[in-house]
Amino acid sequence: MAILSIKLPIHIHPLSLSFRFHDRCEGCSFRNQGEYYGGYRCNDSDCNRVLFHKECAESPLEINHPSHPEHPLRLTERPPRYECDICGIHHLADVPYFYHCSICDFNVDTSCARKPPPPPTHDFQDLPSVFPKISGIYNCCGVCGHSVVAGKYYYSLPSRDQYAHLECIYHEKKVNLPFHPNHPLELTISKSLPDDAEKACVLCGVRSEIVMYYCLICDFSMCLNCVRSPPPLVIEHSKTHEHHLTLLSRRISFTCNVCGMHEDGQVSYLCLQCGFMVHRSCIGLPHVIIINRHVHRITLTNHIGPGYSDCGVCRRPVNQFHGAYTCFICPKYVVHSQCATSYNVWDGIELEGIPEEAEDLPFKVVGDNLINHFSHEKHNLRLTNEDVIYDESSRCEACIFPLNSGSIYCCDQCTFFLHEKCAHLPMKRRHLIYNRPFTLHARGKDLQIDWFSCDACGKQSTGFRYISDDLMLDVHCSSVSEPFVHDGHVHPLYYKEEASTKCDSCHKLSYNMLGCDVCDFSLDFCCANLPKTLKHKYDRHPLSLCYGEKASGKYWCDICETEMDPRSIFETIIYTFEVVPTKDTTRQLCSQCHSRCKTPFILKALSQTEDYCICSLKCLSSYFSKL
Fold first, then answer.
1. Preceding omega of 483 cis (within 30 degrees of 0)
2. 553 in a domain, yes or no?
3. DSSP string covering 457-471, please?
């Protein structure tokens, strides 16, 4: 069944109703610390998790506001400035929508537009008894500690140089909530509570260090965010369960009937008719999605049954008696629902009712063994299977590796080559390091800079690259998937989303690492993609990659004549330079910028048949980009 969407003026794409979200609202830029109930989301693949509060999405195009009675205010995207004239907060362009008067250049953000304006100044005499003060910083909010830009309206606290945002003082001293009906909750300074008091919110578990709502009689605590957006007492969601679900306003230990995970201290909903229990976060899960750990779509299944492997993300067992995401094409693939919908794995797009996209091929077949590739549309490329010995300087335009032997696509009119495998690279693919799809780009096609640094391995390249938002991958790193099998280790490797780890090959620290679940072995993307064989100018035979060997003798590098560790992957020298002092009388010309060298030394490339001098880092980068 397709997702129902409606078109609202605030966004270019249709928006779908969202049962719950806990991310940043695109309308007011407020980032929910806990769950927010009711709202809209954009399900278009061009948008990256665009979410709106219900009231923000349904904002009228024009309002009359008492803070600016002279003219109406129109909803404007990207106004001339980003400072709200009511609260004084400068939003640094992170709030795209304002109510704006073009005549007076008057701005109101969507959050302040829904509130009545306070007096221009107000001495809030009893505020210090409720809110702790943060002193010592001029124009610093006495509640949250963030800066207060001098706007038209703010609260002046009775202490020197103390102010408060309007948002920070729009809290009642006492609130009555339906899931704690016996007593009101009072706004309380956290540090004033007894040491044995419950200082964690009963709903989200967040421990507030400043203020919270608290019932001294029941030892019942709630954070400001859960009071502002409380969960509904009763939920009706037929895709999750056929009966009404009732909130249990205490965190308990139980096994969720949807995800099968047993975790302590989780807020749950209970079916009073049949005893069905579910995590609050497992209500309203998307039915069909695609994740960056699998090539096919996966579907939420209420009862998976036996025969499945461990979770494809965390690799822990999946409870066969409960629900999870499964793949119709791969019969044993399964993912926990919480793992599949985590931010680093899923792009936030619900695919139910959306047909699968046809594969976009990178070339058109124009004849027998003849193609027209998107990266070289001016000429056709011919496939040659002959055992041709190519010049060592001839390289594949996609991967920048030497051609060697094998099937090669070549241009008969210019020196353009592609390995057959590289010519078939998909135009779109997903990758472990990001939740959104990557698109293939070629050098000079639609890119301003020829060279780039791969965000997985850090190496510079002038070849094809996969781009998603601000991330770039070379074709070698883009092909890494799970499980990754490497000849240097007996067990399969998996992507590790952890702090910086040391690679067991090069011993360098990296944040993008492939690790072993069985033993303490890690490999960074750079070492994982080293070629198995290569040619070197000082040896007529191909060099083979060696790793993890236990040798009784010693290994020596034939270039630098230093001893090597056979337990590590051997390094290879790609570029060789000589540092040459410049002459006082006639300084050498840089072969790159053609200027006289101004420094005492210059680099001389030894791989050139003639003297090739480089004077600066900028010229060195330009030199690499042309190789």
1. yes
2. no
3. T--EESS-EEEETTE
Flag whether pLDDT at 545 surpasses 80.
no
Question: What local confidence, expressed as pLDDT, does residue 46 receive?
Answer: 76
Lateral strand order in the sheet of 465-468: 428-431, 434-441, 465-468, 471-474
Relative to beta strand 140-141, strand 162-164 is: parallel
Q: How confident is the model at residue 282 (pLDDT cuts 50, 70, 90)?
A: confident
Establish how many alpha carbons lie within 13 A of residue 624's alpha carbon, considering only the half-sphere containing its beta carbon: 18
Last residue of a domain, one of 78, 97, 113: 113
**Among 474, 464, 510, 504, which Cα is nearest to 488's?**
504
Cα distance between residue 283 and residue 238, in whole Å: 10
How many domains is the chain built from? 6
- Using a 10 angstrom Cβ sphere, with 0-12 exposed, 13-18 middle and 19 or more buried, the burial of residue 66 is exposed
Rounded to whole angstroms, the Cα distance separating 220 from 183 reads: 10
Quick: pLDDT tens for 488-533: 888 999 998 776 788 888 888 888 899 888 888 888 898 888 887 7
Give per-residue pLDDT as tens, 451-468: 888 999 888 888 999 999
Query: What pLDDT sits at residue 479?
Result: 92
32 and 103 share one domain: no
Residue where the block lists tokens 């954070």: 223
Q: Where are the beta strands (DSSP E) in 194-261?
A: 211-215, 220-222, 234-235, 245-255
Q: Is residue 583 part of a domain?
A: yes
Whether the CB-CB separation of 42 and 13 falls below 8 Å is answered with yes
- The bridge status of strand 36-42 relative to strand 51-53 is antiparallel
pLDDT above 80 (res 535):
no
> Is the pLDDT reported for residue 23 higher than 50?
yes
pLDDT of residue 572: 46
CATH number, position 260? 3.30.60
Per-residue pLDDT tens over the stretch 237-253: 888 888 999 988 777 78
Say whether pTM exceeds 0.90.
no
Token pair in block for residue 531? 């070629």
In a domain, 294, yes or no: no
Q: 455, 471 in Cβ contact below 8 A?
A: yes
510/499 Cα distance (integer angstroms): 8
451-460: long-range pairs with CB below 8 Å, 24+? 451/621, 451/624, 451/625, 454/525, 455/512, 456/431, 456/480, 456/512, 456/525, 457/512, 457/524, 457/525, 457/526, 457/529, 458/510, 458/526, 459/526, 460/621, 460/624
